[in-house]
Amino acid sequence: MDVVVPSQFKLTLFFLFAACLLVPSIQVKDLQYCDKEGNYVVKVDGIKISPDPVVKSKPATFSISASTDKAISGGKLALEVSYFEIPVHTETHSLCDETSCPISAGKFVLSHTQTLPGIAPPGLYKLKMKMEDENKNQLTCISFKFNIGRGSSVSSI
């Protein structure tokens, strides 16, 4: 018995399959601005984490695509990582260490690579990032969740 599949169904199936291929490229969960209205000079367009999930004792790169309407000559980034809403790590970086300065009006990328400690438990973490200019004016504040995988911190020989 031959089954006839309508072309509309085939088209729907194709788009569903294509959407499934795109799902692995979604890197971040629950990107939120600290100010619910997002009234910041710097707007975050997207975040990519590689690898995702993050692997303990291996370098992980966090790349944040952003845009601004004004030039930024420098400033700082303050990062806070929480596990089950408990702060477990904080650090501060010069903005110019994470991207080229000065930042011209338009699109730019912040990129930070870090090796997470082997003792970090697997699970869902939250990262909060605040960006300030040289005069301590807040340029943006975001938070997002990321996973640390269950992979072994000991390499096999």
UniProtKB/TrEMBL annotation:
Residues 31-146 form the MD-2-related lipid-recognition domain. Keywords: Lipid transport, Signal, Transport. InterPro entries: Ig_E-set, ML_dom, ML_PG-PI_TP, NPC2-like. Pfam families: E1_DerP2_DerF2 (PF02221). SUPFAM superfamilies: E set domains. It comes from the Eukaryota. GO terms for biological process: intracellular sterol transport. Monomer. Belongs to the NPC2 family. Catalyzes the intermembrane transfer of phosphatidylglycerol and phosphatidylinositol. This is MD-2-related lipid-recognition domain-containing protein. The lineage of its organism: Eukaryota, Viridiplantae, Streptophyta, Embryophyta, Tracheophyta.
